[in-house]
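ok posting inputs for the adenosine-5'-triphosphate job
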Amino acid sequence: MEKTILIKYGELTTKKGNRGTFIKLLARNINSILNGLDYKLKYDRVRMYIEAADTNEVVNRLQKIFGIHSIVISYKVNNNIDELHNLLKEILKQEKFNTFKVETNRADKSFPIPSMEFSRQIGGFILKNFSCKVDVHNPEIRVNIEIRNNSFYVSLNEIKGIGGYPVGVQGKSLLMLSGGIDSPVAGYLALKRGIDIDCMYFESPPHTSLEAKNKVLKLASIINAYSGNIRVHVVPFTKLQEEIYKNVRDEYVITIMRRMMYRIASRFVQENHMHAIINGESVGQVASQTLTSMSVINSVTNLPIIRPVACLDKLEIIDIANKIGTYETSILPYEDCCTIFLPKHPVINPEQSKCLFEESKFSFDNLIDECINNIETITITNKEKNELL
Ligand code: ATP
Ligand code: MG
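and the output
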């Protein structure tokens, strides 16, 4: 018996002009995520085909790759009825089902039994060997049999992929990744639309701990399962942050701090030929995320700022965090640089002119240079991923 995993492409089928690029990127991403496993990948314009030593592990990983609409495991045996019966017994005993339907497609017209009749015979065999019923309208399991090239190809239900676009079709952008619940979800949603991401984390030791940094690396390694290729740029933010607290009036420290983060992220994006900044801001969630705050903070850059969770409720964000496996890590209680020295009354409707006034009280250009020049870049590889998880 031969086993092949068939992959049907997702949304990319609607983008005819870019099809070739989409498929190549998808193949690259699959190779990256299956790295370390024993498998062979082939593809054409309609499907991909994988033969693998460990089908289950490959299918698990494929279910995290954007650009895949569905996955089908196809079994091939010689067109010998005993071999077909044995195969059906073996694969159906691993399934839980009460109802089924057999569908036959006879591509090889020299095969002597017509499709309908063959489906009926195979249905009879299944009824004899398993306690179940036929349901032609809404079966729990469809047994698909294709007869061609002197062989039977058998497959059961399709396994749903996660859809979206292959990561990388939109080039690369920078995710501001904190240890919270929102930004990993924002990263996941950006990847889903085909945006490849690098992450940037602002740390302020000794005010923030090594555990806080490791938590961010762990979150990056969890979303790396959807990307296969993530780097985290850690910005030493302590000096700049201390200068802000020394010079800026209390209500404005968060606004100014976030403007500094945006300035650093923007410069990094431009110097590294990326396209946009992605973050986990959600409208109205905290003082710095009112629309007036966002507008004043946003005004330090011309880059597009993508906020994938901007209009989601916290509970909706938590649902996604649970689904992608980041929630439990996100709620570990380590302080982020945004939560240390939090002012009692952060301004809710900051003004641009007041920001400029506060920023004129100290010289920050050289501090920004220092942050950028001392970035530590950590690449999440499969090996590091295993150690972190
Ligand atoms: P999260 O749950 O993602 O931490 P939050 O609701 O706590 O978000 P803020 O702390 O105001 O919100 O931060 C808003 C966004 O700014 C975050 O989602 C993240 O994208 C970015 N951000 C905040 N702190 C940092 C940091 N230390 N390093 C990198 N990005 C950060
Ligand atoms: Mg946060």
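notes: The CA atoms of residues 174 and 277 lie 5 Å apart. The pocket of magnesium ion (ligand 2) is lined by residues 178, 180, 336, 338 (CB under 6 Å).
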